[in-house]
Design brief:
The chain has about 725 residues and is an alpha+beta fold. Among the domains are: about 100 residues, no CATH class; about 250 residues, Alpha/Beta hydrolase fold, catalytic domain (Rossmann fold, 3-Layer(aba) Sandwich), CATH 3.40.50.1820. It has 12 helices and 44 strands. The longest helix is centred in the last third of the chain and has 19 residues.
Length: about 725
Amino acid sequence: MQQISFWQTWLLAAILMAIPTTLLAQEAELTLDDLFATPKLTGTSPSQPVWAPDSEHFAFSWSEPGNPGRGLWVSTSNGLEVDLISNTNSPAVRDMVWTDANTILSLRGDNLWQTSLSQGVDLQLMPVEAGASNLSISPSGKQAAYLRNGDLWLADFASKQNRPLTEIGIASLSSLAKGRYSRPEREIGPGIWSGPTYKWSPDGKTIAIHVVDRREMRKVPFPDYLASETNPNEVRRSYPGDPNEIRRVGLLAVESGNITYLDLPEPHANQVIDFNWSPEGALLVDIATDTAVERKLYVLAPGASQLREIWRGVRESRMYTSFGSTWHPDGQQVVFLSDMGDRYGLYTIEASPSRDLPQLLTDPSYDVLSSPSIAGDALFYTGNGVNPYEQQVYRLKISGGDPEQVTHLSGQNVGYPSPDGKYLVFMHSNDTSPPELYVVSSEGGDARQITQSPLPAFTERTWTAAEYVSFPSLVDDYTLHARILKPTNMQPGKKYPVIFGPVYSNTARNRWAGNYSLVQQLLVKKGYIIVQVDSRGSNGYGRAFREEFLLGFADQDIEDYASAVAYMESLDFVDPDRIGIWGSSYGGTLSVYSLLMKPGLFQVGVAAAAAVDPMFFGTDDVAIVRTPQTHPEIFERKALKYAGNLEDKLLFIHGMQDHVVPFKTIAVLAEELIKQGKDFDFAFAPGATHGWSREQYYDRYLFGKMIEYFDRHLAEPSK
């Protein structure tokens, strides 16, 4: 076993801090190749930690700076001892669970590995089926379940045998090569906006499963241009107003394989947000309508056959159901995240039939940003407190009292409490620091850093921290908030170009955002001012700000960007004739529509994976746009209608295997722009899906195209 040591890295950092700024200013120019080199500048981010049942240790996968693969690491609860415990020659760790307080089971390649802390042994235990994922240990610790091709399998440690527990999975219609888009016709898996897949009952006799059936959805052509000949694939994909996937919760008897499906309402029109077992074996089921205007909590008592509704919430409008629910330790109450108030909050309600209203547990002055996690005698959650730019972890004792802030590092913090609630591991990042694991006593004190991921080439450079500003909206009484990165050593009297982006909601945040952060830093070093705005739809400012723009579709939020542009133009170091905007997905939508609806507001726009026709949205977007049958006016708001307004420079970036925003929609808009004699540019990625920036071999090419486009049209003042 290898003891982790970072003193060399910290010593180097201390030396660098002591170097005069005149010398630091002479560091080598940052290039696009630096950003996307292998290994990555930021190193390997640690995985989510997993606590041992006795709270004495936690495990995570990670690799030291410059080392390939992901090893299995274990830390004591206080973070004083951190060890690499996996065989360095074994495949990368993909998943891990504790079988007991001393033993970890991990998924590596097509095998389960067993690691003993007391014996210092890391051995291959048994093979599993190829493609295994979502590992979960049985309550007895003698078996593990996993998903494979849409079905649930069981690995028995004594017999070293694997057996299928279900025969549900049906392969995709598509025959696209690996790395391009396909999804099963039917599977045990997540539905809209992810969600649970399966969970063991406390006695290990039953597994609750989430079954998604897409066979009633329309077949959409999905040509694969990278095949030897164009491959006319089809995938299941519906549009607003179409039949949606069917989602059901089933109870799987482990021994017999029999499945009893719960009688949930409208399985084609409701999403399953969450389900959880109580210690006594009652099942809590949390569902919401696809339109996200109604939510229900059900309980299935042990031995019962009928669900009992314990709460129903109805709203006129709601965006994204980032909710969750769990059992109170007493097994008699349910704790759930809801936005029934002005802010997201945690509520509790009796699990028995009751007319009592849910009781708010958390501070109503700020948003709770995570599902509840109960450990020991307390409830842990993340919230933005008094500062919408920050995200901290809070503890609320179950016995009552005021919430206590556990984390204090400035930035974004996501917490994972120990089972006894005495310690909190949290993932921390900020404007200039990629995610790292820390641990802190839940009673308070200084946090101890567990991982140090970036390469020396990252730590040796200076990175630009953001400023956070506020300014008034030009159309109403709201105060808007923005995050700004400025070039260092700005010259008095000089005017600088501005790039807004990536644009989206919830972007004025003190956090590291992967490739987006690296690209922002490169642009700043090239002399651009970078701005991100918390436009309508962002949390931290109340329900009205979060929701009133819904059903407007690139309307009120664009006005927020107009207000932000006006604010930036008021600054004497900003060149009002050199302002650009870019974003991906709905951020791409905002970029396109800003140029088409407000010509001249931005001189340059880059629209990646942009949704430009609501008719081709997915059925998971009905919470935003509803359906053509109920809200036809929204579906008239096609970018195509405004193509004639284009006056500014526009670059489209799009993956030709984009399953969320079909490539067809951009092709149709491009055709109309050509017809109208409009000038624009296009960068496409033949095998990329919606997350174009996540396709490793496309990163450098597409980000390079974007940066080159801004350099060409914004870098220097027009003559």
